[in-house]
Predict the 3D structure of the following.
Amino acid sequence: MTVRKVKSVWNGTLKGGSGEMNITGYTGPFTFASRFENGKGTNPEELVGAAQAGCYSMFLSALISGEELTPESIETEAAVTLGELDGGPAITNIKLTSVVKCEGLSQEKFEELAQAAKVKCPISRLYAGGTATIELDATLV
């Protein structure tokens, strides 16, 4: 199996410091404000959401392709909630909203595959049994 590496550097205090996350082809600054307020930059929760949305879309595509169908598009958004658990910050919910265009896919089969992708994509498996719930609102158009 493959191993992927990313790097993060943080300098300074929590509130006054700043950091940078480096992912292949992307460098994103992050600060206290970008994480806990509405400041400029990214944050770990956005990257978790991007990973979840991308993984879900790819896995659903694989499942649909396994039905001898070709999805025209799978667009997935992840809303990641940073809440509090046991006196500290925690990702408490991830809600996926996905819109799928695929000619020939029945509603019944779509619902089955959409739920299977939610449970079986590698990022979802990472959270299985953890503190975060992963919700799904999937639409076939």
About this structure: The mean pLDDT is 92. The first helix runs from residue 32 to 36. DSSP finds four helices and six strands in the chain. The beta strands are 7-11, 18-23, 26-31, 73-85, 88-101, 133-140.
